[in-house]
# Entry
Amino acid sequence: MRTFLFSIVLLFFISSVISTVPAHETPTTPATLPAKRTKGGHGRRRRNAAKFFGFVRVNRTMYLHSETELAKEFMHAHNWVRKEYKLPALEWSETLANFAKKYLQERYEDCKLVHSSANYGENMFWGKKLHWTPSDAVYYWYKEKDSFDFNTLKCAPPPKLCEHFTQIVWRDSSHVGCALQHCKNVGTGMLIACEYDPPGNFVNENPLVHTT
Ligand SMILES: *[C@@H]1O[C@H](CO)[C@@H](O)[C@H](O)[C@H]1NC(C)=O
# Structure
C-alpha cells in the first residue's frame, strides 16, 4: 500500500526581505504578518533566480502578461532541476495549469496558503510582496534539496521542508501546470501553485527511482 503524502506541510512561506532560504511553516495567515520593506522594491540580497536557471525573459514582467511566457518560465526552471538529477523533463499540461488557476481564484480574497483537495501533487508558494516570479518559486523549492537525505529518504526536522523539492524531482511525475496570482488586496500578497501528475511524495520511496 503506497501512502500518499498530500495533506502534510507542502506549504511554503517566505518573507519578502529574506532572500536566503526560508523561513518557517505557516502557523498564521500570511496576511497577519507585519509588512516589511526592502529598499527600491528588491532586496539587494534577493537572488536572481531566473538568472540562476539561465532563463531570459522578454521583459521583466512578461510572465504577468502572457500565459505562454509564464508556462515557459515554469517549465524552464522545473526542467533545469530535473536535468540536474538526470530525470526526464516534465511536460506542460493545460489541464493542470487551468486547475491551478481556478484553485488560486478561489483563494483570491483570502490569499491563504492552503492546499486544494486535488488528486495531483501540489506545490504552493506565498509571498508578501508582489515581485515573486515563477523562477523564484521553483528556486526556493529546489533549495530544499539541502534538507533532504537521499540515503535515508528523510527530511531534516521541521521547520525544514523537502516535499516541494521531492515533488519536483519525483521521477514518475510527467506533467506539470502552474499559475501565479496577485491576490485581491495588495497587502495580502501573492500565490503560486503548481500541480503535478502523476503525484509524487509517496512515503518511503526514493523520488528519483521509478516505481512499478
Ligand atoms: C512587458 O511586455 C508586456 C507585453 O507586451 C507589456 O504589457 C508590459 O508593459 C511590458 N513591461 C515592461 C516592464 O516593459
